[in-house]
Amino acid sequence: MNVLFCARSNLLTHPAGDTIQVQKSAEYLRQGGISVEIGPVPSAQSDYEVIHLWGLHPMEEIYPAFERARLSGAKIAVSPIYWNLSRYYTALHSIDRLAQWNWLCRFRREILQECDKIFVSGHLEMHSLQQDIGVELPYTVVPNGVDARVFHPKEEASAPQNSYILCAARICPRKNQLALAKACAAMNRPLILAGSVGNQRYLQQCLAYEQVQYAGVLDWEALSKLYEQAELHVLASYVETPGLATLEAACMGCNVVSTAEGDASEYLENLATYCDPYQAGSIEQAIADALSHSFQPQLRQHLLAHYQWEECLAPLLQGYQEWL
């Protein structure tokens, strides 16, 4: 079976969580005997039997890709990587973005109703989609995972080594690092940011707080060391599905604070501390609560038992095998 994965055009030049998700999925399917290429949907006829669209954002890229896929006659799979952003745009007082978001709902509905398979990261993600499009559709849960071969603490490590807080994520307003920087400044806690820069001006606003440092874009080895030595990892985003950095940090033995917006609670259950990015003081309170806990290995054990990539991606391969 020949498969094409089509994601945002800057998937590789601006890496983020979806980059890992796409690459890990392609790698797993190839190991299962399926040929997978990553690239744009061709405008001419092709030999692809399945075209898999990743992410319902940005719609200006994904909908034309969907139209070309539909004309090709190939089976169409969709991994939405979705959460309703209307609350986010309302909080920003962005009337134009909110209006556009609502207007684009018809295109999201069309893609999901006409595709052949929907793979979501969790039941909460699909619930958000169904509320948005007003239609219940069949779907398969393919959770995000973590690579325990890469993200594992040294045997002798049993507690955080340093007193800094870490946030590994793309630097942009949706990830909410500025509110995290303000909270850390108010608590006089050092904060290290790591990840690609989606908004340079936003990064400079974060760095205006003297407690904040930017570590840049790091490879897995360097990032794992930051996870292992951090006192706490915080992802206070306006949405996460569920936040690969949170899973990685927890597998390194780091206590975590996650946003309550998205499906992180489906993965982390009651083993993490949650914050509400829309509520004043929630991030500070969550950090204080998390720092009051002793070193907790339970979350790492839970993720290793249920969320390693090999186990998570099995339903994806099974979904493809149904087409063979």
How do the strands and helices of this protein lay out in sequence?
Blueprint: E1 2-6, H1 17-31, E2 35-38, E3 50-54, H2 59-72, E4 75-79, H3 86-91, H4 95-103, H5 105-114, E5 117-120, H6 123-133, E6 140-141, E7 165-168, H7 177-186, E8 191-194, H8 200-207, E9 212-216, H9 220-229, E10 232-235, H10 244-251, E11 256-259, H11 264-268, E12 273-275, H12 282-291, H13 298-306, H14 309-312, H15 314-321
Parallel strand pairs: 1-2, 1-3, 3-4, 4-5, 5-6, 7-8, 7-10, 8-9, 10-11, 11-12
Helix pairs in contact: 7-8
Strand content: 15-25%
The gross shape turns out to be: globular
Please give the alpha-carbon distance between the first and last residues.
7 Å
- Rounded radius of gyration (Å): 20 Å
Q: How many H/I helical runs?
A: 15
Question: How much helix is in the residues?
Answer: 40-55%
Contiguous low-pLDDT stretches (5 residues minimum) are none
Which class best fits the helix and strand makeup?
alpha/beta
Strand order of the largest sheet: 2-1-3-4-5-6
Mean pLDDT: 93
